[in-house]
Amino acid sequence: MAKDAIAVLTSGGDAPGMNAAVRAVVRSGINKGFNVLGIKRGYRGLLKKDFVEMDLRSVTNILSLGGTILYTARSKEFQTPEGIQHAAQNCMDMGVKGVVVIGGDGSFRGARDLSERGIPCVGVPGTIDNDIACCDYTIGYDTCLNTIMDMVDRIRDTSESHDRCAVIEVMGRRAGYLALNAGIACGATSILIPEVEVDIEKHVIERMRKTQRTDKKHFIIIVAEGCGVDVHELAKHIQAETGVESRATVLGHTQRGGYPTVKDRVMATRMGNYAVKLLMNNIGNRVVAAQKEDVVDYDIFEALNMTKTIDMNLYNIAHEVSI
Ligand code: ATP
């Protein structure tokens, strides 16, 4: 008798550690007796029936790679009722009994819709922003934070040598976790995040003036992209207001790549394995989540309706210390 198949895809923005999760799904799935299929380019590939047979060796040497060997994409077509139905039909045609969806909350909405069409799906949070409400941590976040820290440290060397202010934009469209934690790790004078209303005079200029009086001559200002602040304009404004020569840097896509940290590899492995165990027990429509040191799971609908707040205590500590 043919074995049951499960499939795995990566969707939305790529994140370091996604490959570790793919590897865990493939190896755990095969060890549990499934045929495992990879779907290339997320839901777009699912609509095109772009399935590849995975075996134990097809995931050799990917644990340390950034990006995703399954590639990723965004698909508007999938989001239509016809698209979802077509995707579900493709799964049935391929004998797929369940899908592990590695991505962010948009991808989880797709997983919920596919589950409703009779294909049990389990979401694994893979997104650098750490913006999934039910999770303390998402795959790729730790690597991204460390990458930002490394780059800001380098920028600090030059801005300190020239008595400059470095205004640095980091990723985070809706969430300031990257900016806040990188800002703490790099001793930023000011951290602008989407969760706190931006007041340039109060949060940047006044803080700089205060520290200038203690003879501080170089500054790091971290800005989350979701604040809607143009860092080049902000650098000009800072220079005009404080007299400190200021330069803007947008870290951009450098933040996405690179080999995943230990934390991302270990958590991705645990979450991928957990997702397979859910599917093995015929449990779908779930999101795997990291909470403290544990891996747990939530109903997707419930998970998507949760809200995540920023730790204001941490925000206050950041600004109390970096003065
Ligand atoms: P990231 O946070 O890294 O951007 P994401 O998973 O949130 O990741 P999205 O672009 O929002 O990224 O979603 C990825 C894909 O999931 C979309 O291209 C689409 O195919 C599907 N998707 C997004 N939103 C929905 C939705 N509301 N219903 C069904 N499918 C969706």
Protein model, in words:
The protein is of the alpha/beta class. 41% of the residues lie in helices and 19% in strands. It has helices spanning 18-31, 42-47, 81-93, 105-116, 141-161, 177-185, 200-212, 231-242, 262-280, 300-304, 312-321; strands at 5-10, 35-39, 51-54, 96-103, 121-125, 165-170, 190-192, 219-224, 246-250, 286-291, 294-299. The chain has a 7-stranded mixed β-sheet with strand order 3-2-1-4-5-10-11, with helices on both faces. Strand 4 (96-103), helix 4 and strand 5 form a beta-alpha-beta unit. Helix 5 crosses helix 6 (177-185) and helix 7 (200-212) crosses helix 8. The protein is elongated and about 75 Å long. It binds adenosine-5'-triphosphate. Residues 11-13, 43, 74-75, 78-79, 103-107, 109-110, 113, 127, 129 line the site of adenosine-5'-triphosphate (ATP).
Low-confidence stretches: none
What is the arithmetic mean of pLDDT? 95
Largest sheet: 7 strands, mixed
Helix content: 40-55%
What is Rg?
22 Å
Q: How are helices and strands ordered from N to C?
A: EHEHEHEHEHEHEHEHEHEEHH
How much β-strand is present in the residues?
A: 15-25%
- The strands making up the biggest β-sheet line up spatially as 3-2-1-4-5-10-11
Shape: elongated
The oligomeric status of these chains comes to single chain
Kindly, what is the distance between the CA atoms of the first and last residues, rounded to a whole number of angstroms? 68 Å
